[in-house]
UniProtKB/TrEMBL annotation:
<feature type="domain" description="DUF4190">
    <location>
        <begin position="53"/>
        <end position="108"/>
    </location>
</feature>
<keyword id="KW-1133">Transmembrane helix</keyword>
<dbReference type="InterPro" id="IPR026004">
    <property type="entry name" value="Septum_form"/>
</dbReference>
<feature type="domain" description="Septum formation-related">
    <location>
        <begin position="122"/>
        <end position="231"/>
    </location>
</feature>
<dbReference type="InterPro" id="IPR025241">
    <property type="entry name" value="DUF4190"/>
</dbReference>
<feature type="transmembrane region" description="Helical">
    <location>
        <begin position="52"/>
        <end position="78"/>
    </location>
</feature>
<feature type="region of interest" description="Disordered">
    <location>
        <begin position="1"/>
        <end position="39"/>
    </location>
</feature>
<feature type="transmembrane region" description="Helical">
    <location>
        <begin position="90"/>
        <end position="108"/>
    </location>
</feature>
<feature type="compositionally biased region" description="Pro residues">
    <location>
        <begin position="1"/>
        <end position="22"/>
    </location>
</feature>
<protein>
    <submittedName>
        <fullName>DUF4190 domain-containing protein</fullName>
    </submittedName>
</protein>
<dbReference type="Pfam" id="PF13845">
    <property type="entry name" value="Septum_form"/>
</dbReference>
<feature type="compositionally biased region" description="Gly residues">
    <location>
        <begin position="380"/>
        <end position="400"/>
    </location>
</feature>
<feature type="compositionally biased region" description="Low complexity">
    <location>
        <begin position="23"/>
        <end position="39"/>
    </location>
</feature>
<keyword id="KW-0472">Membrane</keyword>
<keyword id="KW-0812">Transmembrane</keyword>
<dbReference type="Pfam" id="PF13828">
    <property type="entry name" value="DUF4190"/>
</dbReference>
<feature type="region of interest" description="Disordered">
    <location>
        <begin position="367"/>
        <end position="400"/>
    </location>
</feature>
Length: 400
């Protein structure tokens, strides 16, 4: 049994756990660092930064939820004091910036400035995502010269020169979820054609190449509040343009011209309600009802023309038109009562002859209106005559 030596300065050193050999010094483990006798790391570990202080500073800089940023700044200061963490400067800066932001928000709310700022944002979004802030009477060029497909920008140009499109109306679609491309196109097509005559009241003055197009919201601009459809005239020629304004309404017409065209539009509207069936034989009741509507329109047109006092130079021509309208009214009334197709055609032909376009050229010339009748096409909805029925056809979609 071995007895350990007594403690004291003469105690031999403890044997090394590492082997040694004669003539060689004592071996120690090799490594990048020498052994460290203490029970902690030889290098100081930095004190962690308080995460709440970081969050307070971020909210303070962004001025987003300033009340929360201020609260987080105060909480961070308390935690830093207790835990000895770093980030006191960030907590103070976040608290100060959040306090300033909170004061600004309170000021904006108290003065209505926040509401004005939001309205301004919405207006800017609308300008950039709807129909490019175009209003009735504006003319513009599209980037590629086309009014088909999608576009995100247009350039306003004077109407006197060449241009791709001319705005003649605008309206808003109902609020709610985006109805889809087809529904938007259908609504634009129906409404734009209905508004066409209010801007270009003299259909005879429309160039043959003029057609109706529209700028509509996209699903993206709809999410920003865009609900506006803008109706425009454009050229059916893919490489063509329009020149000069097509506007013929109360802003450009004299009282006599305006009275004459308003009366003519009464008959135009009735003529456009013809049955969908191409032949009278296929829908005699429908055509009789249509003839009844035309009869009523002729009565109203006659009343409007006789009540207005036209200039002496135009009065004789207008009187001749009124005489034709009264004769046509008798024939259309008989067509409305026809019991068979042949009788309907007899009165329809006689009434239509009295509404022939050539019979109105002289009074139109006296009134200073266009004197070249548009092509007549009953099924297509355009035409000309004593009622001056006429208009552009077709339609395509260009999206905002």
């Amino acid at each position: 049994m071995a007895i350990p030596p007594p403690p004291g300065p003469d105690q031999p050193p403890s044997p090394s756990p590492y082997p040694s050999y004669p003539g060689q010094p004592q071996q120690y483990p090799q490594g990048p660092y020498a052994p460290w006798p203490q029970g902690y790391s030889p290098y100081n570990r930095p004190t962690p930064v308080n995460g709440v202080a970081i969050a307070s500073l971020v909210l303070g800089i962004l001025c987003f939820l300033p009340a929360l940023g201020l609260i987080l700044g105060i909480v961070a200061l308390v935690e830093i004091r207790k835990k000895g963490e770093r980030g006191k400067g960030m907590a103070i800066a976040g608290s100060v910036l959040s306090a300033v932001g909170l004061a600004l928000w309170a000021l904006l709310l108290g003065t209505g400035g926040l509401s004005e700022a939001w309205d301004g944002f919405k207006d800017a979004a609308k300008e950039n995502n709807s129909s490019f802030s175009l209003v009735k009477g504006d003319c513009f060029d599209s980037p590629d010269g086309s009014l088909e497909g999608f576009t995100y920008d247009v350039d306003k140009v004077p109407c006197a020169g060449e241009h791709d499109g001319e705005v003649f109306a605008a309206f808003k679609l109902p609020a709610g979820a985006y109805p889809g491309d087809d529904r938007v196109t259908e609504a634009a097509d129906d409404k734009c054609y209905a508004l066409e005559d209010q801007y270009a009241m003299d259909a005879w003055a429309l160039p043959d190449e003029a057609d109706v197009y529209y700028l509509t919201p996209t699903s993206q601009s709809w999410r920003l509040g865009d609900r506006e459809v803008t109706c425009v005239f454009g050229s059916v020629d893919p490489y063509g343009t329009l020149t000069g304004s097509l506007r013929k309404d109360e802003t450009t017409l004299d009282p006599d011209q305006l009275a004459y065209l308003k009366a003519a539009h009464v008959l135009n509207a009735a003529m456009d309600t013809a049955p969908d069936e191409e032949y009278v034989d296929d829908d005699l009741p429908g055509y009789r009802a249509w003839a009844g509507r035309v009869t009523d329109a002729l009565d109203e047109q006659t009343r409007l023309l006789t009540e207005h006092r036209f200039d002496a130079a135009a009065s004789p021509g207008v009187a001749a038109v009124v005489k034709d309208l009264r004769g046509a009214r008798q024939e259309w009334a008989k067509a409305a009562e026809a019991t068979d197709v042949d009788t309907f055609y007899d009165h329809y032909d006689a009434g239509s002859a009295l509404l022939d376009a050539d019979r109105t050229v002289a009074p139109r010339k006296a009134l200073g209106l266009a004197t070249t009748p548009p092509p007549y096409d009953l099924e297509g909805g355009s035409g000309g005559g004593a009622g001056d029925t006429g208009g552009a056809g077709g339609g395509d979609r260009i999206e905002a």
